[in-house]
Amino acid sequence: MFLGDGFGVVVQEIRSRHSKSFQLADRVNVFGNAFMFSTHLERDNLQQAVVSALLSKALTALQGCVVVGERGLLSEATLLARKALEVTFRLVAVAKSAPVATKYVELDDVNRLGLLKTLKALKGVSFTPEQQRMVDEASAEAAATVRAADIKELQTKWFAQEAGMLDFYNSLYAYWSQSAHTTIRDLDRLVEKRPDGSVDYFRYGPETDGLDNLLCSVIECVLIALEAAFGVLPGGRLGELMALRDEMLALNDDIESVRKSP
Questions:
Q1: Residue 89 in this model has a pLDDT that exceeds 90
Q2: Quick check: helix, strand or coil at residue 82?
Q3: Nearest to residue 87, comparing CAs of 54, 48, 47, 50?
Q4: CA angle 179, 183, 186 (to 5 degrees)
Q5: How far is CA 111 from CA 119, 146, 155, 223, 227, in A?
Q6: Are 138 and 95 in contact (CB under 8 A)?
Q7: Max alpha carbon distance in the chain (Å)?
Q8: CA gap 233, 35 in Å, rounded
Q9: Higher confidence at residue 140 or residue 125?
Q10: What number of CA atoms fall less than 13 Å from residue 63's CA on the CB side?
Q11: pLDDT over threshold 90, residue 164
């Protein structure tokens, strides 16, 4: 349904109904990409390298959110919104503190060790002796590195706290995670019920309820990420960013007034 040749008409209709949100998202994307292509990194500056890489992820998450959102794939857009927020937690934390950049890079050994443990726990998979030797050696090497450097596993909440964004973690992130984990509440909105509470039918098609709120929140995440990046990378245009933030706040006010109207 969502990939058919004639679906472009639906995309145009959805963009038309939510034009303010899509237009602002497009402008923020253009602004962010212009900064990405104009800034430059100092040699051997790990903080700048990590912030730059994370900013690219925030921008592609915004772009992906727009692409699936304009097709009415609201759950999928929510997953990308959650990714944008996760990236923002990490980016802001790294931008605030260079040592956090080192901790973030060191997590690769923790993640690698976890993946190797998962690989070794697979049932019904037979490794050749050579494959088993390679997995065992890689696991031992990763474990030794983690022990020697006393590397701790850091969860998303830790980065949110370091970024000073715990309120975002406890609100938006928690809410969007319901879609990521396919909770029953996330599925419930697909059900149309009869007056007696029994199931009448399941909805399958474009969803746009809450799309403006979603896009506005993702835009806010990316603007926060950009502002943090401006503190580490050269070439940021703070005045233009503040103007985009004012537009975002005005859009949010419009969305709220529509929601509250009878």
A1: yes
A2: helix
A3: 54
A4: 55
A5: 12, 10, 11, 29, 29
A6: no
A7: 70
A8: 9
A9: 140
A10: 11
A11: yes
What pLDDT was estimated at residue 228? 98
Phi, psi at 10, each rounded to 5°? -65, -40
Q: pLDDT (tens digit, 9 = 90+) per residue, 102-116?
A: 999 999 888 888 888
Is pLDDT at 128 greater than 90 in this prediction?
A: no
Find out whether 133 and 123 touch, Cβ atoms under 8 Å.
no
- Round to whole Å and give the CA distance between 188 and 180: 15
What local confidence, expressed as pLDDT, does residue 170 receive?
97
Alpha-carbon distance of 197 to 144, in angstroms, equals 57
Flag whether pLDDT at 188 surpasses 90. no
Q: pTM above 0.70?
A: yes
Please give the pLDDT value at position 2.
74
Strands (E), the chain: 191-193, 199-202
CA atoms of 165 and 175, how far apart (whole Å): 15
How many CA atoms are closer than 13 Å to the CA of 120, on its beta-carbon side?
A: 15
Q: Where are the beta strands (DSSP E) in 146-246?
A: 191-193, 199-202
SS3 70: coil
Which of 213, 246, 248, 244 shows the shortest CA–CA distance to 32? 244
